[in-house]
Structure formats: C-alpha cells, structure tokens
Amino acid sequence: MKNLFSIIPADFFKPLVSKYKDQYADCLLAVYNSYKSEISYGVDRESVVSTLAEYFNGRTDEISFDDDNSFEKDSRSKAQKTINYLKDCGWLDFEDEKNYQQNVVLTEQAVPFIRTMNDVIKNEETEYQGLISQIHAVLQNEELYSKPYQFILKNVVSNTEQLISSLKKLNISIKKHIDRQTKNKDLASVLDMFTAYNDEIVSKSLYRLKTSENVGKFRQSIKVNLDKMLSEPKVLKDLVSGYMEIEQESDSDLAQDKIIEMIVDVKTAFENLDKIIEDIDRKNNHYMKNAASRAKFELASGTNQEGKINAILRYLAEVSEEDENVPDSLFNVFVQKYICEESVKKIPEKKSYAEVASIDTAKTLTEEEKLIKKKLMLDKQIARIYRKKIEKFVLECLGEKQLILASDIPVNNRKDFENLIYIRLFAIESSIYMVQKKGQRVKTEKCEFTDFEIRRKAPAMVTPEL
Description:
It is a single chain. This protein folds into three domains: 4-122, Arc Repressor Mutant, subunit A (Orthogonal Bundle); 131-298, no CATH class; 381-456, no CATH class. 57% of the residues lie in helices and 9% in strands. It contains 16 helices and eight strands. It has a three-stranded antiparallel beta sheet. A three-stranded antiparallel beta sheet has the order 6-8-7. The protein has a two-stranded antiparallel sheet with strand order 2-3. A hairpin with a 5-residue loop joins strand 4 and strand 5. Helix 8 packs antiparallel against helix 9 (187-210) and helix 8 (148-182) crosses helix 11 (233-246). The radius of gyration is 33 Å and the shape is extended. 18% of the residues are buried.
C-alpha cells in the first residue's frame, strides 16, 4: 500500500498552515469552482489571474510572498504571485499550448483535497435515498453481465460504501443538529425546530429507508445475486479479468481474492444496515426527548430561581430610576421547589437503639380505601402523555378528514397548548399522522405559535422478501 506522503509534494500542506491560510484556501476554491464549465481542470492563465484579482479586490488585508516581508498592494500582482506560490507547493501546474498560451491546471493530488474542502464548507446532506434500489437494479440487469466488474460490482461497492458512510455521518450528527437548534433558544424557536428537524433531517434521510427503500425488500435479492456472481464460473472469470484490466493487476489469483473480499464486504454491510438504522433511531429519540424537556422547561414560566432573577434583571434593564410604576407580576409569590440542604440543616442527634417491645402487623386497607387508591392511580395514568394517547387525540380531531390545521384545534388552557407541542414531537415516529409547517403565525388570547398542517398517513404497504 502506498504511503500518502510519498505521493504528495513536501510543501503541499504549507499554504493551509501558513499565516495567510484563509486567503490560500479561498483562492484554491475559487480556482476549483472556475473549472466547472471546462472540459478539464485547466484553463488559460489570464482567466485564473482575473478570477483571483477579483477576489483580492474585495479584501483590504495585505499579503507577503517573500522572506523580507515586502507586502503586495496591487490585486493583480497578488494573484500572479499566489498562482506561482501554489505551483511551487504542488497544488497547481502549468501547461504550454501551441499558440503560446499557458494554462493553469490543478494537479491530480490537489483535486480530491479541494473537492473535500468544498464538501465540508457546504455541509450538504448526502443524497443516498435511492442507493439501495440502484444496487438492486444493477444486479438484476442481465445486459450488464457482459462486463460484470466494470458495469456491476464496481458500482455496487461504491454505492454501498457511500450508503454506509452517509448513514454513519447522520448517526454522529444528530446530537449536533438538535443542540444547534435548541440550545439557548426561546420556546417559539424550539417548537419551530421540531418540524424543521423532522422535514430536513429525519424524514429526508430515514423515511424512505423505512418504507419504499426498506432494506428488507431488497436484501435477500441482493444477497442471491451476489452469491450467483461467485457460483457461476463464467461470471467469476469475467469479474477477475475485468478487475485485472481496470485495477492493473497481473496476478489472477490475487484478483480473484479481491473480488471475493469485495462481495463479502457488500453482503456484510447489508446485514449490518438494520443495526445502524436502529442506532440512529435510538439516538434520535433520546435527543428529541431532551429537546422536549427544554420546551417543557420554558413552559414553567420562570418559577425556578434562575427565572426569578432573570425577570428582575429584565425589569431593571427596561425601566428608569424615576419610573415608580412597578408591575405587580414582578413580585409574585413563587413556590420554591428546591431548598439547599445546608440552609436548614438540623443539628445531628445521636441515635440509640432501644429494645423492641412489639412488632406492628401490616395495616390492611378497607375496600373503600382500595377504591380511592385505585382511582388516584387511574387519574395519574390518564394524566400521562405518551405517543399512542396523542395519536388517538389526533384521530379524534381529524375525524373523517385527511388534513386539518393546528389552528383548528381549540387552545383554551396550558394543557391544550402542550398537546400541540406533543403532536409535533410525536409526528417524527408516528405511523398515523405527519405534520408540515406553514408560514403564518397564529395568535389567540392564550398563546401564539406558527401554524402547521396535521395530515393522516396512508397505510404502509408491506412487501414480502424475495
């Protein structure tokens, strides 16, 4: 296996760790993006100079390219010297044409690095929802078996690696997405986050993988076709010859081992796919519950110690010293739910153990007491909020309709408003209904919120495994 540092030039990473790393990174991305309309990663030098000069025109900072710290002030001069510097470090190269025109090209080592930089900056969610069906379709296409390695196995391996990598990326980014959208946000922002997160992260990334793209629908067929590639001598022979041709491998035995390894890796990946999705669901539910707790905390109306102090500070910041009209709500009497143990600590008493005179028998509840206790437990159970209860409430609100607005549900008290929050929260994993955010704000005497649709889901179609 080749070593990375034996391939790239010695000064390759020098621009990205220098004092002017921001400028060099911007210039590399500008050069890379200017090649989008070209047939190769090369364009005439004058065009590249113009692109970088335009970039430097928008900056006021100076940049030095010499050891004597002499600064360039002219944008065109900065562009010229930047091109030469990036060439010396191995990012760019020059090609001379017959008409005495000089082209600036990206080196083969630079292209994958800049592409990765571009992907990291964009931070786009990988589109992988159709990868499973693509893998299945390619393996089923008999016409592609004329060259099974080039047309089938190479694409299957690439798509499988992209699928697994994308799911793992989603798995590690769930907490980041939720924290970024809920930490230090007010209640309205937290509520808006539920629908945005469901639409942009969960539904987009997982919904089709659990329904139309469900791995269970395709896994058995994919495994059968992969096994057939190994069991049929002609297909295996064509795979080996194709690998030797494309990968420049001269040893047929080693090529066959690589083919077998690739097929086994794909089968293993599909066997582990359910575990990855299950872990994503587990993390998603965990972090969404934490976000719901934050929303519930915001509904506590600031009755904790921090809320009281914030209320006083906000008041003092808003009124002047001459204003004597102090609102009554500022001095409401709050119930303190927590008292520091040290503030009311009793003097410890020495314990003495006297002789036990008698042992009391357990008190038996009367039938009336049992009924009262049973009723209390039942009332407590009814007061609990859980997904099936909310789904039942949604079905009652929908009736015979396929769609209603959240604003159609009366909000007369705090309990009704909490129901709206839980309707949006439980929609993420509900098989009964889904929600979609609307643009308009709804304001009543009791509350204010962004309206959203509540839509009945069609029954999922279950397709048996092949």
